[in-house]
Amino acid sequence: MIRSPQAAPVPNASTTIQLQARGGESWVLVEDLKGRQVFDAILQPGAPKRFPLAQGLRLRSGRPDLLFVAVGDAVPKPLGDVGDLDWVEIRP
To answer: One digit per residue, pLDDT tens: the chain, 92 residues?
Structure first.
């Protein structure tokens, strides 16, 4: 039996990314994959921000341990440990 490869799932055009500070404020910089700035601010706890994910986004935070990220309906997870200060790329 010959099996054809399964097609990769097509990302939903309306997929969003949610950012939320928990346990303290967190500076965050969001860029698209071409380096254009989308957002640059200090998030306060309890004030989530949503952005269309489109083809993907790059995130950087001064407190990645306090910045929780959720793609679509996923459970929010911390961007990283307190010392993870590099860019994090998120794609659909």
So the answer is: 444 344 334 445 479 999 999 999 999 999 999 999 999 999 999 899 999 999 999 999 999 999 999 999 999 999 999 999 999 999 98
Number of domains in the chain: 1
DSSP string, 17-83: EEEEE-SS-EEEEEEETTS-EEEEEEEPBT--EEEE-TT-EEEEES-TTTEEEEETTSPPEESS-TT
Residue 43 falls inside a structural domain: yes
| Most distant pair of Cα atoms in the chain: their distance | 57
Q: Does residue 68 belong to any structural domain of this protein?
A: yes
Domain residue limits at 38: 17-90
Task: Tell me, yes or no, whether 34 lies in a domain.
Answer: yes
Domain membership flag for residue 9: no
